[in-house]
Amino acid sequence: MHENKALPFGQVTISDQFWAHRRELVRREMIPYQWKALNDELEDTEPSGSIRNFRIAAGLEEGVFYGCVFQDSDVAKWIESAAFSLAYAPDPALEQTLDELIDLIGKAQQPDGYLNTYFIINGLENRFTNLMYQHELYCCGHFIEAAIAYYRVTGKRKLLEIICRYVDCIASQIGPEDGKKHGYPGHEIIEMALVKLSEVTQEARYRTLAEYFIRQRGQEPNYFEQEIAGRNGEFKWRESPFGLQYYQAGMPVTQQTQAQGHAVRAVYLYSGMADIARLTGDENLQKACRTLFENIVRRQMYITGSIGASSYGESFVDDYELPNDTIYGETCAAIGMVFFAYRMLLLENRSEYADVMERILYNGAISGMSLDGKQFFYVNPLEVTPAACRKDWKYHHIKTQRQKWFKCACCPPNLARMVASISEYVYTQRDDRIHMHLYMSNESCFTLSSGQHVKLAVTTDYPWDGKVSIHISQAESPFTLALRIPGWCDTWSVTRNGIPEAADTEDGYALLPDCGNGDELVLNLDMRVRFVRADPRVRQNAGKIAMMRGPVVYCLEEADNGTALWNLLADPREPWTAAWSDMLGGIMRIQGTAWRASDACQEALYSEAPISYTRIQATWVPYYAWANRGEGEMSVWVREKGL
Fold first, then answer.
1. Alpha helices in 306-406, H assignment, sequence order
2. Is the peptide bond before 386 cis (omega within 30 degrees of 0)?
3. For the chain, first and last CA: distance in Å?
4. Kind of pairing between the strands at 576-581 and 587-597
5. Is the pTM of this model over 0.85?
6. Catalytic residue selected from 410, 489, 515, 555
7. How far does CA 310 lie from the centroid of its chain?
8. Distances (CA, A) of 173 to 188, 224, 402
9. SS3 of 509, please?
10. Does the active-site annotation cover 410?
11. Which residues contact 605 (CB under 8 A, 6 or more apart)?
């Protein structure tokens, strides 16, 4: 069996201007800022209570639990992002802070291994009695990922051992055996975390538990129905369109064909499913993963890669139902979709999975953070009119400017750990073939299945320039390098040592066999300005177009184009110029002719009077950078002229 493999941690060193800058923002700004938030030291923001909860649980303070039932997970995500930052920027003071925090976590842990501050403070007798609502397994999943990250970076095992004890406590209470609860998490993530834990510890029982959670989900008798009955029938989503599918638990996972319910929960589950499908070779599970991935990408994903269209339940709605102004598009959901796409790459090496990762990373994920790393979006709309957002309740969830923090603060630390770990997603290996999925400047070391060692040095100004240069060294014998040809690119070329090469393609990758020591490869991807149309079944985008260049989605902002952006029309047949600008941290700004409908007042609200149009110079900027110049209108989609 030819298995795709992730690279061992630490083999990729990022030097890319685009991503190294953002990782530095995580290290220099986001991690200290979020540490203050967790310790309730930010002014004029909702308190977190997260660290204090652990101090109370450890018996070091008196008090009551504060925050959401899943407040512990914010601490875990902060640990994970801080751990990843130590890998590229060693910081003894930060490491000491982490060690002290881990000591505190250890003091809060109960004698049998249990570790959740909500129940330690509020009553251990209620633990594991409400798996649907109470997020115990979700918090554990995040702590597993944090412990693994810290162990991989520092070699320190204390947090890993703490969390292994907690997982063992969970396994003593939940599982297929008689006398245990035959349940599974209401909010998924522990499934993919347990697979990682099994790989790191070489303990098969953790993977077995992950597989149990996945295969038991939605089986009859339905465990969540039993919990509901125990609460006298109380069930928040009973009259909703979801029912138990809000938790992806209305049917066994292999029978699910449409992404439904809470978007973050869904893609976290699908990520775990893809892991188990890969490791077990279960064809039914593999088929379910492919079906669900295709349903999201081809029917329920925004052009920015955001998912989860409705604020009601933070959920998927239905195929092709993609409103731009009332979208939810949670940052965490976009990040979860990156996890899912990456695991599908490990399951089967097809460029469409890497295309999705790239779309999200350059658009719907990093839009969640300001350019200075100090403010955040939970919701990522594709169209904003501030006046309407202030006056119409249907926009109650839309923020027109990024926020300093949130009462439910899952997104900021999730984004920090995503950016800090970006090197994890660049490559995979299969036998003596190296697959390059994402293009960013880096130096990387590989040990192939033949035992030979290879070094790659990649330089590029991606995503602004389509030239990717690759220098190969230390190659002891020929190997194959597979370079992804992005789905957005219709013209590309490759040279080897200055000579054009007619590379064969396979599953969306250009194959370069017989690569050897000293080879200089150059991939050139055409980055023309493109106007994209939605599937006609997406009614919200009928007659509209959106602009892209390379992987980057662009938008119109009031700062450049004035108000009433809905009155603008663009013609793809017009010339469009992309030029470098130092604005917004350095971007390729796109300008060209557009038409603005006259907003002159008429005597009547409706009349037969024709609308006149004026030619204007319009400016498009990358979507991820919007709302960094004050409050104003924004729109990704614009009406198409000439239809």
1. 331-347, 351-359, 386-391
2. no
3. 51
4. antiparallel
5. yes
6. 410
7. 18
8. 18, 16, 42
9. strand
10. yes
11. none
